[in-house]
Amino acid sequence: MSSTASTQAGQKAQSLTLVEAIQDGLYxxxxxxxxxxxxxxxxxxxxxxxxxxxxLYEEFGEDRVIDTPLAEAGIVGASIGLSQTGMKPxxxxxxxxxxxxxxxxxxxxxxxxxxxxxxxxxxxxxxxAPYGGGIRAPEHHSExxxxxxxxxxxxxxVSPSTPYDAKxxxxxxxxxxxxxxxxxxxxxxxAFREDVPTKPYEVSLSEAAVxxxxxxxxxxxxxxxxxxxxxAAENLSQSRGIDAEVIDLRTLSPLDTETIxxxxxxxxxAAIVHEAPKTGGLGAEIATTIQxxxxxxxxxxxxxxxxxxxxxxxxxxEDYYLPQAVRIQDGIRETVEF
Length: 338
What we know:
Keywords: Oxidoreductase, Thiamine pyrophosphate. It holds the Pfam family Transket_pyr. By secondary structure, this protein is of the alpha/beta class. 36% of the residues lie in helices and 21% in strands. The protein folds into two domains: 14-197, Thiamin diphosphate (ThDP)-binding fold, Pyr/PP domains (Rossmann fold, 3-Layer(aba) Sandwich); 209-336, Rossmann fold (3-Layer(aba) Sandwich). The chain contains twelve helices and 15 strands. Helix 3 packs parallel to helix 4. It starts with a strand and ends with a helix.
């Protein structure tokens, strides 16, 4: 594990990557709550395909870190059952593209049990899934289909972009009484480090983060796209004097509509960046929310900078498919200069 340092407040912290922060978050929650269990393919002895569950099996044993067959519907179905016995299951889907066999369990049962039972039962469960492209993976390993789950009432959907947020959002998700889809941007699993407190803490599931203050345009994004959006904003500030505000949504459902609209009321322009296909993506929901809540402040058409309406291509075209800083810069500039 990474070296321990002290924060300015005198609290101990570790310099962690995002995937290490996930592992630390799981370890922290399992250490303080015996009802938290982890299950999935290769999460136990192997420590997970990305090592997000590394060392958990050795520390907590096979009754709490459970290797399962390759059966996503069974993993999620068993987790729903566990949640009804006082447990807090954290099932892992190895990749978001493997979640489709479990879709029926998620939307027909996990998302509906509170409503179906008129509030008598809930499903305290966190489904973790690495998602997104950029790592040169085979087909079905680079999906970004967060909109599927945002559309379903009864689910919360979360996507961290920093190690600090990853641990705090994971803790808040595990403590939440309802099911959470926790999407981990694997492109930045090991891209950078950040000081993460060793003690338990939460990051709210209802608040976006303003990553960069600005006055000319609001840029909304999440997950792995936050970093190229920030790079684009800095480049435009230096080259053209465009002052972009960058909002990291963090929680995709429920959306922090207050932060979204407050930023737009200040800038009057918006660009939305996501790697999922453009049509039917979450960008459309954000744009519509702005239209409904802040139309009179609008100075230009809202720009969506997204993946293309095609399956994620294989290796040689993957970087072309994903919104890179240059494409984001072009979209921001076009909107500001409209």
